[in-house]
Amino acid sequence: MFRLRRRPWSWTRGCVSGQRWSHGPARVMAIRREDINVWERRAPLAPRHVKELTNAGHCVLVQPSNRRAIHEKYYEKAGAIIQEDISEASLIIGVKRPPEEKVFPRKTYAFFSHTIKAQEANMGLLDDILKKEVRLIDYEKMVDSNGFRIVAFGQWAGVAGMINILHGLGLRFLALGHHTPFMHIGMSHNYRNVSQAVQAVRDCGYEISLGLMPKSIGPLTFVFTGTGNVSKGAQEIINELPCEFVEPHELPEVSKHGDTTKVYATVLSRHHHLVRKSDGLYDPIEYEQHPERYTSNFRDSIAPYTTCLINGIYWDPHTPRLLRRLDAQRLMRPVEPSVKVTEGSPELPHRFLAICDISADAGGSIEFMTECTTIDKPFCMYDANQHIDHDSVEGSGILMCSIDNLPAQLPIEATEYFGDRLFPYIWEMLPSDATRPLDQEDFSPQVRDVSAVLKKLFRFCLGFREHAQILKVSGRNRVLLLGSGYVAGPVIEYLTRDPGTQVAVGSVMLSQAEELAKKYPNTIPIMLDVTSQESHLESLIKDHHLVISLLPYVHHPMIAKHCINKKVNMLTASYLSPAVKDLQNSAEEAGITIVNEMGLDPGIDHMLAMECIDQAKVDGCTVESYSSFCGGLPAPECSENPLRYKFSWSPYGVLLNTISPAIYLKDNQLVSIPPGGALMDSVTPLDFLPGFNLEGFPNRDSTKYAKPYGIESAHTLIRGTLRFKGFCNAMSGFVKLGLVNTEPCPMLSSTASPVSWKELLCHCIGVPPSISSDAFKEVVYDRVGRDDHRMEMLKDLIVMRNDVGIRHSTGELETKHFSLVVYGDSNGFSAMAKTVGYPAAIAARMVLDGEIKSKGLVMPLTKNVYNPILRRLQAEGVQYTIKSSFSE
Length: 888
Known about the structure:
This protein is of the alpha/beta class. The chain has 5 domains: 22-134 and 420-463, NAD(P)-binding Rossmann-like Domain (Rossmann fold, 3-Layer(aba) Sandwich); 154-338 and 345-402, NAD(P)-binding Rossmann-like Domain (Rossmann fold), CATH 3.40.50; 476-595, Rossmann fold; 604-744 and 795-830 and 861-884, Dihydrodipicolinate Reductase, domain 2, CATH 3.30.360; 751-791, no CATH class. The chain is 33% helix and 19% strand. It is built from 28 helices and 32 strands. The strands form 6 sheets. The protein has an 8-stranded mixed beta sheet with strand order 8-9-7-12-13-16-14-15, with helices on both faces. A 7-stranded parallel beta sheet has the order 19-18-17-20-21-22-31, sandwiched between helices. A 7-stranded mixed beta sheet has the order 26-27-28-23-29-30-32, covered by helices on one side. α20 packs across α28 (863-875) and α27 packs across α28 (863-875). It is globular, with a radius of gyration of 35 Å. Mean pLDDT is 87; it is low at 1-22. Keywords: Multifunctional enzyme, NADP, Oxidoreductase. One of its GO terms (molecular function) is saccharopine dehydrogenase activity.
């Protein structure tokens, strides 16, 4: 007859009443359901571990899961309670990370978080853990006194990975025209247990020993990197084949003349392939302290004699890589066959056929392994010549297997193995109270140090995550863009059209950078204040191939010095300042390019001028005069304000320009305007576009361009600024009232109480300084009349006019008139953003692609620079017209 089986010790729904316990008060822990991956069938503890806990009086909750490889009835038999709600538990353990929304606040969790190296995919989890005050015990950081991990699946990753790559070799050999014994080895998860998988490998080995491997394939060599559990697990499988282990220096011989009735294997340690860059020697102590001083000769001394690489070594950005893309290209070259080949018995395309990257470290020691494969799609082919991955095992390339959850293919054995290593520490984790300080817990060093180290690491990760994002994809051009204002949009849009280019936007306004990152692919937002975070700036520069600065020119000397120190190219749209000009020799010695004045004015004006001047010289003409006026203006319908102007670039720069001195040449007379505001009284009406009602005034020192332009004989040389009529009159009044002044303001002096700009403005408009930034913006918006439609329809305008007087050999004077008029888009880029951003972006692309090769300080004054940029600007809609007028 059937009897109702009562749960142990009369537990009801929960675990609070009627508990039997020993060795202290009973605790409640939970094994959560694995739900992050469809193939995740492991558990952190096996039923026999649970039985010990329940026998000791503790309550173990197990979330039900039909996916778990060990059936829940075995956990229930061990005394666990199978239930969905695990919020009662103070300790919750799993294998992989839970989704953020399933993390309970102020609990102790144990799992692999994969946040230690600031892995981008798990940064949301990191933020959530910190926010919810969770105590995380990350298995990855549980180490012994020697720093070796004590809780891991490593051996089973090696076992599963080795079985998989043997299966993959069978498929690859078949695609190359060879049936081999490897065809009868399946993927690890196809076997009920590891014993069945091992038997399949043994059967394969038996056929190899009978001489059933095609002779034209030649001897097979397997190279294992590392000596840890991962490598040992993989070696256990290769030992089921007829295998001879040889020393690395023996590989050249056995790869050519070895016995095909067996396979060869070698295990690499650091001393086999790491050498000091300076003298080719290896010092293990120095390497631990300064790995950047070393390189790997694996590509030359080992890889050419390798059939299959099984990689299980740890890599970080400071250590040498095993293989780079260029190395893979060399390894794909054909080798001389050791036996006669025929159409039916073809030779291999190259000796290096496959990589099993058990480390699954994307962009790590195998640079071109940029994305892990999956159990569903375990293999891909990397074609180094095309720098592409494809899924087929046919065609050209190196077979890659880089599954990042290999032990999940052997879930029962992996659970038992892992549980044996974790279980001794469960006893001390059970009493953990996440609301108590860490020093009040009775933890062993292995557990206590994890929590202490993780707190430090989490703080470090918040900064290091930027570094990890930047370096996550190899083979990309990495651009650091400083500044996130209006001009940044076109620069990013243009550069990221190429999927091989990544842009990191460094800005003190992180929200702006984040909006840009949402809008454009391959874009990373970074919080950066170059004035107070110079060391952070330096570390970012080191990780990039090009720095583009859209910041005010005063920052450029400091940025340029860091670029020179780190040998990183740089580009700016600003005028070449004397401080940057002094860095010419340093930039040349560093072998870098610093492109300057690559915007609108300066930038497009230079290029239009030089295109005309160079052609005039080719035609045997002389340039007698040069006049260039440019202005960023509101569209006429948006100009109804006292200044007839709206700021479309740095307000500081606009205002400073009104009180600056100016020098220009007019009919061979040098005209000098003193600083202090006299410039606003030196205005000239301009009617080259009568419908615009424009005026202009000289801009800084125009005469300094005579030599760079090569027009020292010109009688007139003036560069100026355009505004709508009325601007200069109103601005002159502001100057005379002292509202535009570079002198310190007493109210804002260092002796006054500290005040921020926000506090000052809050005082002016009568709101408390504690108001949030968003609320403050709303108040200001209300004060100026809140007109959403007007804001959305607001457009700007760029007008540029170059007049070049050319004297022909016939004596005729031709004046070429270059006109550029660009409107901003209501829902797109402003005219200023387009005409500054696109020239900078195009020049940046030319630097990245090697079109601009000159070293040192570069300006857009030579044909190899200005010609392609002007053509490409026209393709972006920046069109200019040319007309000529003639006189005697």
